[in-house]
Design brief:
This protein has 5 helices and 4 strands; from the N terminus they run ββββααααα. It has 136 residues and is an alpha+beta fold.
Length: 136
Amino acid sequence: MDAMTYKGYIATVHYSDEDKVFFGKIHGINDLVTFEGDSAKSLSGEFHKAVDDYLKTCKALDKSPDKTFNGVFNIRTGKDLHRKAALLAEKYHVSLNDLVKTALSYGLNHESDLATQFVHEPTSDYKKAKQKKSKK
């Protein structure tokens, strides 16, 4: 998995062959925080510095660092999966919402099994962050 964890914060990490640099982005926070390094060791150190600096800044500004989630989101399943889920919910006399919550909880509790189902595509977060830095 191309992710790092520190103090409960998760960052995705990537490598830019063009720039010969590792880079990362912290997720689950209210702001865009990126970091980079020229080795795995330096990337880890920069991630830790970025988290610590972000937490310090949020404390100074008296703002919550964590992104707020309201517990509501839409999902797109496709017609067949939607139908199968609705019928399974009926079979067990639960709402479709409860079935989805149960399936989501199950997946999160079995993350290592679930992770094999995902294919990671590179993102353009690094280029976006780099463009923002150059505009300043």
